[in-house]
Amino acid sequence: PSLTSALLSSEVDVVFSSMRVDNPRLHIQTTHPEHYVLVAKPHLASQIKSISDLKPHTLVDISSSFPLFRYFGESNQLRPQEIFSHYRFLGTISALLYWVLKQDAFAVLPLYFVQDAIATQEISVVLPQLEVQHDHFRLFWTKNHWAEPAITQLAEFLRTHPLK
């Protein structure tokens, strides 16, 4: 909400985010797909063969308003309270990754954010056979913005350069 307010009040010109906004005063262009994975440390991930194996564990997430678990849960008709014993909100994806690494928790995180930790086997993807929804990064700006041609060019440039 604060980013949308900043755009509408012209405090900022452009926002690049994966947030979802429905405001008729804003232009929105998608730039990159954002894929998500359920992750844990390898010793925990290796114990999980089915959804029911998650019951004794902790899920960490961003917030109750914008849970990342929805990308995993909605596609599999699951609610975190039904499959995890503990559920904590930590506010940022960096905090979620820290808890996964240091506190033996599970989290749904953007693949671009954890791909290095997966490659070095610090964390593992849990239940990779299950479907996980994806989202998109987007550029947001106000309609009739003075720099709209440049912003549109920026969106096109971003589409041709993968996230790292």
| Oligomeric grouping of the chains | single chain
Low-confidence stretches: none
Please state the overall shape, judged from the principal axes of the Cα atoms: elongated
Q: How would you spell out the order of helices and strands?
A: HEEHEHHEHEHEEH
Main sheet makeup: 5 strands, antiparallel
Give the class from helix and strand content and strand pairing: alpha+beta
Give the DSSP E fraction (strand runs of 2 or more residues).
Answer: 25-35%
Question: Alpha-carbon distance between the termini?
Answer: 26 Å
Estimated helix fraction: 25-40%
Number of strands: 7
Whole-number mean pLDDT? 93
- How many helices? The count is 7
Radius of gyration: 18 Å
Walk me through the structure.
The structure is a single chain. The protein starts with a helix and ends in a 5-residue tail after the last helix. With 164 residues, the protein is α+β, with helices and mostly antiparallel strands. The protein is built from 7 helices and 7 strands. Strands 1, 2, 5, 6 and 7 form a 5-stranded antiparallel sheet that branches. Helices cover 30% and strands 25% of the residues. It has helices at residues 2-8, 42-45, 70-73, 80-83, 93-102, 111-119, 148-159, and strands at residues 15-17, 26-40, 58-61, 86-89, 107-110, 124-125, 134-142.
